[in-house]
Amino acid sequence: MSVIFLPVLWALGGVLQPAMNLAVWQALCQEPQVFGALRHTLISALGSTVLALLLAISSVIALYPSRIWQWLTRRLAVLLAFPHAAFAVGLSFLIAPTGFIARLLAPLLEWTNPPLWLTPQDPYALSLMLALALKESWFLLWVLAAALQQQHILRALHVAQSLGYGRLQIWLQVLLPQVLPRLAGALAAVLAYSVSVVDMAVILAPSTPPPLAVLGWQWLHDNDPHYYALGSAVSVLLMLIMVGISLMGWLGYKLLVLLNQTPSGQRWRTFPLPFKATGIVSLVVLSGWLALLLLALWSVAEQWFFPDLLPQRWTLKAWWQFDGSLLGNTLLLGAASSVIAVIVTLIWLEAFPQLSSEWWYGALCLPAVPLVVAQYTVVIRFGLESTYVALVWSHLWWVLPYVLLVLAGAYRSFDTRFEIAARALGYARWQVFWRVKLPMLGRPISAAVAVGFAVSVAQYLPTVMLGAGRITTMTTEAVALSAGGNRRTLAVYALGQALLPWLVFMLMSSLAFWQARNRRGLK
């Protein structure tokens, strides 16, 4: 753990040190791009976080604990495996002036030419906000699904229903005050990603000026000390934005608790919910499948002119030009970082079984831009730039917390009576761990490997920075092609980036099933 985190935290001080000069902040305020970039960041980060929370909460209010909710939770892992950059590319194919939505509307509105709307890269970063909200709502739903597995939540729902309260009133007055505190860490992680996102911003956000994270990333790459100092100041500003928005959210929650402190007990008049379960599932879930479908169509389209709904001619030419080295690099980095993360996590949980895992959200709550520059500083000092070792080490900063959050609940809910019985039969502690715990935790370990692989595949900033152009992956190639490359080639790499985590999820599920084939209690 110390090897992964402490060197980066030490180097982070050096990255942020130029921002301690007042003259740097004065120069930053005089930069013509800063205030436009700040506007884009605030709209996309604050808007996407609030919208993601509303989508997740609305889905839970409408669906829990119905069969549709059970169906949705079983498919959240598939949605979580969709990398951010690949989803951004697919969504751009959906909402662009020549995208699928415009093609659907063309016969109704008699369009023969693409409409003039500015999506993606609209001047207010609304496309980026929408993409982040949809993508992060899946993560919040995953966290909510874990929180709602506790029996007292379902009992509280049934008791309130038996007392005559409506569904909306039950959630607002009874269940949300219990659930929202469990979302604090996840919301902070969502906000941190939205504030500092670069890959999705390059694809969907305006470029004149770009959001603050992209602007700071460009300046931190500059060899001019003046612009490097401005990039350092932007990194501090990103942290201040996150702290400010988090404080606003905390005050809003405290206000909600205060207003709900002494409920009157009066039943609200029952109204039909302003949304339907099918509509929510369509917005939250089908957006991902539509993005995937469009990536698949564009990857085999030879001619696809507006306003035709499907390509006129099909070809596999873009697939024959696929660079296999990118696939190899992606597989190697994903497999190495996920396996190492699982091993480290198992050792950590075995050594500190009672230590809370919530504080691991802290590693996800720091903006990525200064962290990656700090990682690069450490790698340069040890002469490991452009090596696989450096890239795997850099990915572990993000992979390890997610793996720990997946494994911690299952590991700590392990029935200790099995361990006591094994020790009473003479097994040593390492034998109990190897022969009893690991087989019984096969499914959560497999899920943790798959989640860690998906997180590694999605890493853009550490790969492009520490790889220095010598080690590239499908993610870095997809983002590079989004700046103006061939749509077919872009679709091939984005689709490959999306399919890899799903294939790993299927493989790990199959391995877990095979491992439990002769163990009835583990099926």
Description:
The chain has helices at residues 2-16, 22-30, 34-63, 67-74, 76-80, 84-95, 100-109, 126-147, 151-162, 167-179, 184-196, 199-204, 212-220, 225-259, 277-299, 317-320, 324-351, 361-364, 368-381, 388-412, 416-424, 429-440, 442-457, 461-467, 474-481, 487-515, and strands at 301-303, 313-314. The radius of gyration is 24 Å and the shape is globular. The chain has a two-stranded antiparallel ribbon. The protein starts with a helix and ends in an 8-residue tail after the last helix. With 523 residues, the chain is mainly α. Helix content is 72%, strand content 1%. The mean pLDDT is 87. It has a single domain, classed as Orthogonal Bundle (MetI-like fold).
